[in-house]
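Contributing new records

If you add data, match the layout below exactly. Sequence lines come first and carry their own label; structure lines follow with theirs. Keep one chain per record. Anything else will be rejected by the validation script.
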Amino acid sequence: MDNSIAQIREQFPALKQKIRERNLVYLDSAATSLKPQVVIDRISKFYSLETANVHRGAHFLADAATGEFEKARETVRQFINADSIEEVIFTRGTTDGINLVAASYGSFLNEGDEIVITELEHHSNTVAWQLLAERKKCVLKYIEVLPSGEIDLNSVNQQITAKTKIVAFSGCSNILGTLTPIETIVKKAKQVGAVTLLDAAQYVTQKKVDVKALGVDFLVFSSHKLFGPFGFGVLYGRKDLLNAMPVYQSGGSMISTVDYQHTTFNHLPFKFEAGTPHIEGAIGTATAIDFFNQYKIENIFEHEQKLMNLALTELKQIEDIKIFGTAQNKAAIISFVMKGVHHSDIGQILDQQGIAVRVGHHCTQPLLKKFDLTGTVRASISIYNNEDDIHQFVEAVKKAKRMLL
């Protein structure tokens, strides 16, 4: 992998620019990944030469766009190893997919039923279930997180009970990098007859996603964290569940017949895809998947782990730095604070040196409150980062300390 990093970096035009007269060091991939030139070019080609709406056109461009749009669905199906394209629903992103399941499958829940999530969830996978619990008078329960950031396995067994109907959880924490015990949680959920939803927004670039091997009932992810465009995502759902679920939104494309008093709805996957779709999003996502599939995901993970361990070794030598998230099994996401310094001040100083990190609560306010924090500095590593990036980042943190303490 090391020998190809320079070649990989060449494919990302953002890395060729200067930020405040310095080379860009991009360590904010947990928020969104940079985009390779092939994805940029493919989307540009669609707008330049292929613009047309899909599924109902009677001309060459519409037919071609439809073909590319549905070809993208097959690319996604293969990527996640779903049984059928009918199980691949195109959405606006992870958040939209979670809300779809909460609104549609959630309609089957009754008063007193239990919904279980974990303490490390992104707000997207917290608020949707809070609202459902309030609306249906259900009980929302949390699997606890240990001080290391790891899932408390005892809590898994305690919180998931015979009353549990939905278990929704992240495969990878966006703030701590924790890779959660998916198989253990899914197994427990199945024992009590609960359905599972896996938030794979961060997980999708870390480990092979195989919905059949994972055994999940629903899975969601966003394209923009997978080197693809913004505003596009995927919901995988078991066909029998999707067929049973009521429609989520109404409009064109998701109908079969409409008269003045009654409507019948389209078959899967179109039943859940109302209105003109994000066509270039689908095509750009397929291109991003093809780009990602050039490389063995195990090699990417190993590369990112190597850089994370380098960064952690150097950061731990800086007095007054405290790192959160020390799970044994974690993605290359580093979240830290500096004693006596506000995280935003560190972020500003790093930005002045051309280094992009994330600061704030990272949409995980309940977890931060558990650790008595208001925010952290988060550095997240991806395929295009190298050792120079890490050294520059650490030196910038040292400079921030000298300036602020």
